[in-house]
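User: My instructor asked us to take a sequence, write out its structure as tokens, and then describe one feature of it. I'm not sure where to start. Here is the sequence I was given:
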Amino acid sequence: MNETKPLKTAGKLSRRVFMIGLPIALAACQTSQPGGPVASTSGMDGGAPVIDQGFASMYGPIADEPFPISSIDLGKINPRYYRQVVDLPSEIDAQPGTIVIDPYNHFLYLAFENGKALRYGVGVGRDGFAWSGDATIRSKQQWPKWHPPKEMQARDPAAAKWPEGMPGGPGNPLGARALYLYQGKVDTLYRIHGTTQPWSIGKSLSSGCIRMMNQDIIDLYSRAPIGTKVKVLGNATPDPVAVYKSKGGARPDPVNQAAAPAGYYGSEPTPPAGIKS
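Assistant: Let's start with the prediction itself. The structure tokens for your sequence are:
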């Protein structure tokens, strides 16, 4: 049974976290109108879940992009993470147009008027990478480049191939779109972006960034202009030790859900100041 966990209030993400912990790990990390189908987990005679055709279309293949986007196998995604219009939880105070991320429950809300919201399922940061606070979208990119940190390039031949950034495409870990989060003029190094690993939606696996299915990030990208306010609920800040032990943060997606191949994370990096190896 999928029980929704309590919501938490938004906290403040400190500048010290930006300047010390995050650069090590995070420098990399069909549009439907409101009022669409309603998710259901019911199946006929106890068999496989019945996929509403509205959702099947919503998460179908997209051919009119620079790179083709495959359909999502919705039978492998919990229906609670399908994009859908819901009542905004009463605990959330957000003006229409605000994005609110509830990492505890793996939801992203785009607040509408009259107490409604468009809700998306997301993947969030694992232990030590979770974060919270307020930010603003200051940049948006379609099929964005991924820029591996210089430290990663120095120790990892795979990352060293991309000194000018890995071009957007099917293997790029940022997926089809990316929204870049700032606090004032400071780049938080966190992004809301797509993924080629839809199975990671509803899980806490990333190096802090917010993952969405490519179909969903394309939809959100079209709705969220530059200047959109973003609230991440909770009181979490990244743990520099966990950041260090990640050996570099977000990487191109592995071929499958199994453990990454040998050498995928490169050799051991130099510990940040104050951390003993």
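For the description part of your assignment, you could build on this observation: The chain has six helices and eleven strands. Try explaining in your own words what that tells you about the chain.
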